[in-house]
Write a structure and sequence with these properties.
By secondary structure, the chain is α+β, with helices and mostly antiparallel strands. The protein contains two helices and five strands, in the order αββββαβ.
């Protein structure tokens, strides 16, 4: 755990110093990332605990979403601006990282 935090701190330091060149920040969708702060979409997503994380677009209406992130990386990206992630939250889901919902328009009547 300490090694992971040290690695993340080093990545942040290098990313901050290379901000103007765009090597570690403002990454496009599909590019490898360490944390959501690096991506233009503000979502660094991985499919499983062992997979590599990549920048991904935020969830559109009806897509799966999550508001919980682990180590600044999502398993399901949060919703686009103006949408709400509607889903159940439980203690077991927080432990197993399965608290997913669906992106919905909070102003719709359904």
């Amino acid at each position: 755990m300490k090694l992971m935090l040290l690695y993340l701190a080093c990545c942040i330091a290098v990313g901050t110093s290379a901000r103007e060149r765009g090597l570690f920040l403002n990454l496009k969708n599909g590019e490898l990332c360490v944390g959501s702060f690096q991506c233009k979409s503000n979502c660094c997503q991985r499919d499983t605990a062992l997979s590599l994380a990549r920048c991904a677009s935020r969830g559109a209406e009806g897509h799966a979403c999550s508001n919980h992130l682990l180590y600044n990386v999502y398993y399901k990206c949060p919703c686009e601006n103006g949408l709400k992630c509607d889903g159940d939250k439980s203690i077991i889901g927080s432990i197993t990282n399965t608290n997913f919902g669906a992106c919905k328009d909070p102003n719709s009547i359904a």
